[in-house]
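Hi R.,

As promised on Friday, here is the backbone we talked about, encoded as structure tokens. Could you run it through your design pipeline when you get a chance and send me back a sequence?
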């Protein structure tokens, strides 16, 4: 069965809510899903997944230090994440507060691992991944679900290739 891992950091719950919606979408697409707070995620979670979706709040225009630390730690599994499918989501306080640069920073790490990245073509989404400004509204939650679903479906095709 295709495995999708959702790892997120969240202080006030907005990114956490998005993570649950991403997980719901991946499950609805038929994947087995594990959702972990970044503090609880291990490198084995990354290597054991076919699809990996990372979410962090936008802090000073980029991802939070907690998520950056997790990505930096993944250097220890360099070479083992190749061809896994990845996507990103973020919550920011302001619509122009750096949510897109946060998504690109999250994606950058995945590209360096040789992963295959899923974007977001939905009008309610955020082009480079799912974006919420503050608490995610119904449209954002749908974008998160669709993103999770597409990661699961694509991982079934290319994951571990
Ligand atoms: C330390 C800190 C820095 C932040 N920097 C930004 C920022 O640069 N741009 C922005 O739009 N929001 C910024 N915010 C607001 C958060 O991105 C926003 O409240 C987000 O929804 C929090 O997500 P969470 O509920 O998952 O913790 C910042 C919040 C904190 C605590």
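Update: got your reply. Pasting your designed sequence below so it's all in one thread:
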């Amino acid at each position: 069965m295709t495995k999708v891992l959702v790892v997120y950091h969240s202080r006030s719950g907005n990114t956490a809510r998005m993570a649950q919606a991403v997980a719901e979408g991946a499950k609805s697409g038929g994947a087995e899903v594990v959702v972990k707070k970044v503090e609880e995620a291990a490198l084995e979670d990354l290597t054991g997944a076919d699809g990996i979706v990372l979410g962090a709040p936008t802090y000073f225009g980029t991802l939070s230090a907690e998520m950056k630390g997790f990505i930096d730690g993944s250097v220890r599994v360099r070479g083992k994440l190749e061809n896994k499918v990845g996507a990103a989501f973020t919550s920011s306080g302001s619509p122009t507060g750096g949510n897109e640069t946060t998504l690109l920073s999250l994606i950058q790490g995945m590209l360096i691992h040789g992963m295959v990245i899923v974007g977001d073509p939905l009008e309610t989404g955020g082009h480079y991944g799912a974006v919420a400004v503050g608490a995610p509204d119904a449209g954002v939650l749908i974008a998160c679900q669709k993103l999770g679903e597409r990661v699961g479906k694509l991982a079934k095709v290319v994951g571990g290739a």
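One thing I noticed while checking it: The helical segments are 14-28, 43-47, 65-73, 99-112, 138-158.

Thanks again,
M.
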